[in-house]
Specification:
Blueprint: H1 2-22, H2 32-44, H3 47-50, H4 53-66, H5 72-80, H6 91-100, H7 104-115, H8 140-150, H9 159-173, H10 177-184
Helix pairs in contact: 2-7, 4-6, 6-7, 8-9
Subcellular location: Secreted
Organism: Adineta steineri
Pfam families: ARMET_C, ARMET_N
Length: about 180
C-alpha cells in the first residue's frame, strides 16, 4: 500500500515538473511585424468600425494600399490577403477576432499563425552599431547592407575592401560616441 502511494506521488510530481517546463516564455520577436502592424491599424479604427467585420476588412485593404512596397508590412498584407496580388485570403482570421475584441498578440500568434506560419517569420532587421561592432566579425552580406543603406557603392570582391570603404565613409553617416559625450559636458 505504501509503495502504491509513493508511486502515485512520484507520478504527480513528475507531471507537475513537465507542465512547468512546457510553459515557454513568450518570445517578443515572434510575430513582431504582425503585432506592430495590426496594432497600428487597429488604432486607426473607431469604435463603430471595430464592431463590423466587413468594415475592418475594407479598412485593412485601404491601409495596406498605403504601406511601402517591399517592406515587412507589405509582405504581411500579402500573406493575409489584403492585396489584389495575394495568393491566399485570410482576412477573416484577422477581422473576426479583431471585431470580437481579442488582443492583437493572440490574433497574430495563434489565429494568423495557424493560417500561414510565414506571418510570424517576418522580423524587423536590427540596425548595426558601426561604432560598437568589430567589422571583421560581420558577414560580407551585412557589410554590403551597411554600404547600400548609406547609398555608397558596394560592389567589391574582398571582405577587406568592404571594411576599408566603411571606415573611409563612416564619419559622414555615423556620429562617433566621443562627439555625443562632449555635448553632454
Amino acid at each position: 500500500m505504501q509503495f502504491v502511494s509513493y508511486f502515485l506521488f512520484s507520478i504527480i510530481i513528475s507531471l507537475n515538473f513537465s507542465f512547468v517546463r512546457s510553459k515557454k516564455a513568450v518570445d517578443e520577436q515572434h510575430c513582431e511585424v504582425c503585432i506592430k502592424t495590426i496594432s497600428t491599424f487597429a488604432d486607426t479604427l473607431n469604435d463603430e468600425d471595430k464592431s463590423s467585420v466587413e468594415k475592418i476588412e475594407n479598412a485593412f485593404k485601404k491601409y495596406c494600399k498605403k504601406v511601402k512596397v517591399d517592406s515587412k508590412e507589405h509582405r504581411l498584407c500579402y500573406y493575409t490577403g489584403a492585396l489584389e496580388t495575394s495568393a491566399t485570403y485570410a482576412l477573416g482570421d484577422l477581422s473576426k477576432p479583431l471585431s470580437w475584441g481579442i488582443p492583437v498578440e493572440k490574433i497574430c500568434r495563434e489565429r494568423l499563425f495557424k493560417t500561414n506560419p510565414q506571418i510570424c517569420d517576418l522580423k524587423y532587421e536590427k540596425p548595426i552599431d558601426i561604432n560598437g561592432v568589430d567589422l571583421n566579425k560581420l558577414k560580407v552580406k551585412d557589410l554590403k547592407k551597411v554600404l547600400t543603406d548609406w547609398g555608397e557603392a558596394a560592389d567589391f570582391v574582398e571582405k577587406s575592401d568592404y571594411i576599408r570603404r566603411i571606415n573611409e565613409v563612416k564619419d559622414k553617416y555615423v556620429k562617433s560616441t566621443t562627439d555625443t559625450n562632449k555635448k553632454d559636458l
